[in-house]
Amino acid sequence: MHPASRLPPEKEKARYLEHNNDITDPRYREFARPLYEQVREHVPQGAMGLDFGSGTGPVSADMLGRAGYEIRLFDPFFQPDAEILQGTYDFILACEVMEHLFIPWMSSAA
Predict the structure, then answer these.
(1) Which residues on adjacent β-strands are paired with residue 64?
(2) What does the H/E/C string look like for 29-71?
């Protein structure tokens, strides 16, 4: 997308707030189940993960946390603590994220 066509950050955030990402919704949990199962299959319990782009309802982080994983959250709008990105992780979740990155091969979304 051409930079002039992108929403300004405040409108982008408002759009995300329209999503109904309730971590207690069984349908939302079922949507996240394949990602949860892949982590459970390939990553040992107790490992440290990063949910990159966790949004307003970090359902995968919730499910994995309940299963004994340690999860840190980062989202540029809802958990913007950049120090989290300096950590070292055993795995990184990025569910429904790639379509939101303007320049995915760079560390900045500028």
Answers:
(1) none
(2) HHHHHHHHHHHHHHCCCCCEEEEECCCCCCHHHHHHHHCCCEE
Q: Which tokens hold the place of 21?
A: 């990402």
Q: Using CA atoms, how far apart are residues 64 and 26, in angstroms rounded to an integer?
A: 15
Q: Strands 70-74, 91-93: parallel, antiparallel or unpaired by DSSP? A: unpaired
Q: Which residue has the tokens 């919730």?
A: 62
Domain range list for the chain = 3-100
Note the pLDDT tens digit of each residue in 40-89.
Answer: 999 999 999 999 989 889 999 999 999 999 999 999 999 999 999 999 99
